[in-house]
Each structure stands twice: as structure tokens, then as C-alpha cells.
Amino acid sequence: MTQSGAGESLGNREEAVAAHTRTLVVCPYSTSRGPASERATARSPEARREEAVGLALAIDLHVVDSTLVALSEIRPATYLGKGKVAELAERVKADEINLVVMDCALSPVQQRNLEKEFKAKVIDRTGLILEIFGRRARTAEGALQVELAHLNYQKSRLVRSWTHLERQRGGFGFLGGPGETQIETDRRLIEERMMRIERDLEKVKKTRALHRASRADVPYPLVALVGYTNAGKSTLFNRLTRAEVVAADMLFATLDPTMRLLKLPHGGAAILSDTVGFISDLPTMLISAFRATLEEVRAADVIIHVRDIAHADSDAQAKDVEAILAELGVAGAADKLIEVWNKLDKLDADHRAGLALGQGEGAPIAVSALTGEGIDKLLAAIETRLARGRSLIDLDLEAADGQGLHWLYEHTEVMARETGEDGHVHVTVRVPPDTVERVKRRFAGAARVGGAPFDRADSGH
User: Fold this and answer.
1) pLDDT tens digits, residue range 261-275?
2) Residues 225 and 367 in one domain
3) 3-state secondary structure 332-365
4) Residues spanned by the domain of 63
């Protein structure tokens, strides 16, 4: 069986196991007003519950129910209060729940204690996101990055009962068949595996650096799409590049970065990169693991922040994306950033009329990646942003210089073209700084509209 075939077979087995895993999603939320809870309360508890259920459904779990739990304080032993733990334990028993997803970050002790009380497997938000990433990774590098993050997470959680849904994929994850080994052996094997992965990733990092250096030799700027998960980045990527990247209505449908050529309105081109979606409370270990992958964002000439403007928590999602960009060292890159308000097709006329888009270069651009509305405006904005520092040159070409005109279309952005009564072709082109001299050399005898011809000194002859 081929590697891809084996991967598909494993994925099918995992889906089958998940589909029979009766799951309860528990969403604790703080009722305190201290600064520690400020970020957690940036969105409504109902919206957080909807997102948590979406995360569980993203790996095909059978979600029986979900519940909100108000917390005035976090208990060190079980996170939740005794009464609530007992109530949930009864519910787990009555509904024959196999898995409880806690939409919060649990310590190893809290996780173990809740498993004893519930007599069911318990995972927290970090474990769930890691599992989704493990399922979504398609490239060798992506799989290594996810496994390293998962092993780091799992190392402190080795307990006797890693049994219910233990995955048979190199020892990480919670979906698969049963199996149990000694804790000490597990920990040693995990540490050895982590060291091997780190060595492999170091090689990948060097290869990526070489690829980036080779791309620097190609005269294409880099445009990166970023945004909250499920904001429509992949649909927008497909619309802009006419590609066929997976664009499911699902959290974390895209994990590994994808790159395609983006054609701009006046003949120029750029490389467009679709990146992993961000999410609130993204595990720090995942940000660290994917730092190399997200270097594409740091290296980008233009960053497009895609927002789901139809989502009730669009503003809170935008703040989460900005926080992660800051953690990646992309903060303060306002001159690179274009904010795109996506999913216009989901808004009614009143909501559309109420959008405060503003005017000018820094104003958001409203689009529907699904229908194509606003895409022309976005492409023009990308082109304008990339044009900073580029020169406009007007040329007057002989009618017979078809080869020269073709060269201009191949190597510059042709902004305007007009054929005069004398048969001469008047062309306005926009060129990056490193191409100006090539234009001068190639068209040394051509007149510049409104100016003198390029002289031989200018052309380098």
C-alpha cells in the first residue's frame, strides 16, 4: 500500500472511531471581572460554545450535547466545583458519554481527576486543537511539527489510563486502538522521538531557507493570507488564483501552507500564500511549532487579513489574529496590511449599508470570496500596495516594434496603451527599482512621452 493510501486508510479508521465516540462538550466561562478574564470574555459564552462544538465536529466526533458552566473561580484539583463535577458525572453516565471535551486549558492533575470522576476520557481545548492539527497535516513538515507539539504536551500527561482511544500513529493523539506501556518507558521514548523530530525539522528549516533564497531570485513579491479559522481564506485563495484548495466550511480545513501565482490587473504577478487559520487561545506550543511555516507571513510584502464580517464575534476574532501576529513579530506592519471583510453574501441590505468601510488606502475592502463581489477592488489594492517604490515610465514605441511591446508585457506592468495617428504606440509601464535599468537598456532609442529619449549614458551603452 502506498504511503498516501495508508494515510487515507488510517484517516478512515479514525473517522469511524470518532463517529462512535459519544462526546459531551463542556464550556466553562468566568463570571469574574478581573484582568485575567478580560480576553476570555471578549466574546459571548454562547459563541465560545459554538466554536468548541465546531472544533469537536472538525474531527468527526459524535457530539451528544454541549453545556455552559459559569465559574467564579478555578479549582486547582478539578477546575470545576465539586457540585458541578458530580452533576456532570451523572450526565456522563446517563448519556453513556465516552469523551468529555473541556473548552479550557487543564493541568495534568485536573485532567486525571476529572477522568476519575467522570469514568470517561477527558481532553482539554489544547489537546483537541492538537488532534485536529494532527488530522489535517498533509506535508511531512506539517506532520513533524504537529507531532513535536503533541509529544511535548503529552509528556507531562503520561498516566496509567491512556487507553480509551489511544492512536496507533507514532504515539500521539487520542484516536486509535487500545494499548498501554510503562510510564517510564513512554517518557523515555517520547524524549528520544522529540530529539529526532527536532533534528529532522532543523534540516527542513535549512531546506526552507534555500527555497526562500531561490524565490528571492524570482521577481515575484509574496502576498500572505492570514485570518481566523473558517474566515474564508481558502475560498478567497481559490477565487484569486483559480486554484482548487480545500475550502470546506470547517475549522482548520487548511493547515499546510499552499502557494500559487497571483495575476494582477496590469500584467504583474505575485506569489499568494494560504496559511493555517488562527484561533483564540491557540496553544503556545503550536505557535512555536509552526513558527517556521509562518515565516512566510513575516517575509511577505503584503499581508491580507481576512475577516468573516458576517460572524457575530468578528471584532473579537480580529483581536485574536492581531495578538498572534504580534507574537510572530509581525506587529506594527500596518504598511503591509490589507484588511478584507469577507462573506458579504451572508449580510442583508441593512447590514451592508451599516458597514463602516471608510475611504483611502488603509480602509477595509468588503468582498465575497464565494460570489466574486469586490475581488477586482481587492486585486487593485494589492497591486497598489506592491507598487510602492516602483517607477512609472512613459514610452513611445515604433509601430513595427512588436517584439519590444511583447517584452514590456512580459517584464513590466503595462498601465496604459494607446496607438497614435502616426502609428506609434504610447505605453505607460510600472517597474520595480531593479528593472528600471533593464527598461532603459532595452529601449535606449525610444522616446519617453513628455520627455527626451533615454540617452546612451542612461542605458549603460
Assistant:
1) 898 887 778 889 887
2) yes
3) CCCCCEEEEEECHHHCCHHHHHCCCCCCCCCCCE
4) 3-135
